[in-house]
Amino acid sequence: MIIPREPQCPAAVAAHYDRLDLFYREIWGEHIHHGYWLEGRESPAEAAEAMVELVATRLRLAGGQQVCDIGCGYGATAQRLATMHGVSVTGLTISAAQHAVAQRRVVSRGSLAFHLEDWVDNTLGSASFDRAYAIESTEHMEDKQRAFSQAFRVLRPGGYLIVCAWLASPAPAAWQVRHLLEPICQEGRLPGMGDEADYAEMLWGAGFTMLDCEDISRHVARTWWVCLRRAATRLIADDRYRRFLRNRGERDRIFALTMVRLLIAYRTGAVRYCLLTARRPD
Fold first, then answer.
1. What is the pLDDT of residues 206-237, one digit of tens each?
2. pTM of the predicted structure, to 2 decimals
3. Per-residue burial over 177-206, b = 16 or more CB atoms within 10 Å of its CB, e = otherwise
4. Is CATH 3.40.50.150 what the domain over 10-279 is classified as, yes or no?
């Protein structure tokens, strides 16, 4: 497990997303997760939706199911799954800014509910969901073992959990740890970045049967080129971005450099993007 030198708590994660709210929405769009380029010709919006559908396929969704979105962001993924598959999605986020946007979403099929609370201490009922997913949210959780135990608790027997996560290389070089992985954790408000073995052990420790771990890094890495291009365009055209980067009191301005680190981390194999499929036994 890669641990940053300065501890990152849930309050710091929430504050990061609240302070950068407008930047995230303008640079990432409504889906603040990686896109999935299978053919390579997809637009960024199509790639983001392709990632959602990939998760839906691995979840084995069926109409009427109760689904939990662990770290729902702005609620766009939950909205698409409810609309496209007729499921009821309950999402949790610790960001007040994200929760406010998610609360405004409506669907023509299925249903949506969003809670402003910390997943590791959530108040959801035990065995109340058929499916659960976490797209790039477990990285932000301080107690990952408890996070997976909570997923096991809220799922019904036979339920599936899908986790999309940034994972560290199983044997990163010293320079990768020092110049890429530790700074990414520090600047991105990640209390720790595990590798595949760490996640497998934690899932097993929570009671899950781990079915698969797919490395889809090559299909998602383009996300950071898209983000950097959008950020550069905004920097040229929008004075808000220039003022933000010049503000020495704004500690989150370093995230502009983090995007470059992540691009290099993917290119060098220091970071992998994996989709893990786990199941609560019957």
1. 999 999 999 999 999 999 888 888 877 877 77
2. 0.92
3. eeebbbbbbbbbbbbbbbbbebbbebbeeb
4. yes
